[in-house]
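ok so for the tutorial part 2 we go from a plain amino acid sequence to predicted structure tokens. step 1 is just haveing the sequence, like this:
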Amino acid sequence: MAARAPVETAAMRRAIELAARGLGHTSPNPVVGCVVLDPGGRTVGEGWHQRAGGPHAEVHALRAAGERARGGTAVVTLEPCNHTGRTGPCARALIDAGIARVVYAVSDPTPAATGGAVTLAEAGVDVEGGLLADEAAAGNEAWLTAVLRRRPFVLWKYAATLDGRIAAADGTSRWISSPESRADVHRLRAAADAVIVGSGTARADDPQLGARISGLSDDEISQPLRVVVDSGATAVKAGARVLDGTAPTLIAVAEDADAAHLEGLAPLLRLPRAADGRGLSIPALLQALYERDVRSVLLEGGPTLAGAFLAAQAVDKVVGYLAPVLLGAGPAAVGDAGITTIAQALRLEVTGTERLGPDLRITATPLRHSRHEEN
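step 2 — the prediction. this is what the tokens look like for a chain of 375 residues:
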């Protein structure tokens, strides 16, 4: 098999590229890519999971390959599933197609779907796992985190000046970041199941929170669920842009809030208040969203909500857009996160830097999450 290794590695890299095409369209399922090689190592079929409820990546690739798959190899980013949900088990589809070898990157951690590798091996298929596992897991980080933590993956995004301000002293903030950075945020929105803001942002900016991507029609973009955390039910009013109907909206309010004026404007989510009485319980919010099949969240809230998420240890990744601008005064990017001394500081591992126009985009991961919890 040594001679095949370079071919299989190249096929896995291609499968990871294919999987990424499903971002924003497959939740609550993972993104998956598959490449089928014939017995001579030539690519004869490709596929990716395109939408939840639709055929899985292996099925698309096997259909493209046809009889050329017989005796060949399936290279797939996630262990083929072993259960019947809205679609049939991929392990059985591979066996029926006559696949002789399956190479996968990441084991499936879901109890219902796991076991595909065992089923394949019992049917006489040569099975190998772990090829480019880290790269494949990175492409599926939101789904894997949601499965393992039983809550949505949370990406906190913010834009700030070089001295850490998100607005001037008078509250003005448009525009701190560049058009290139703002376009990148829309791509993050389109890849997320939900985008969350707090009452302060709702009042100050009246955000619309939809995703708009140049070159793509509205039909080609998956709009996220728009969530406004409005504890006292005082920030969202009739006519707010977040109620414009272009995407679903959910308003999270406290269990004891008077929200009669919001009835009929948008669905309400009543949640317990946080233990300190300020805002809502972040774990309860995430649990409620998880139960609604939300597996990834883009947190766009202001400093108060960001601090609450950080205090709850509910931020899995940070994307900061730093503009070469100085203000000297104004609100900081993050508020009270329960950190009172340098020893409690939340340390981050920088995993990426990129120039976007004049801005610097920094991607970082809290160190407590920097090792995948499967290990």
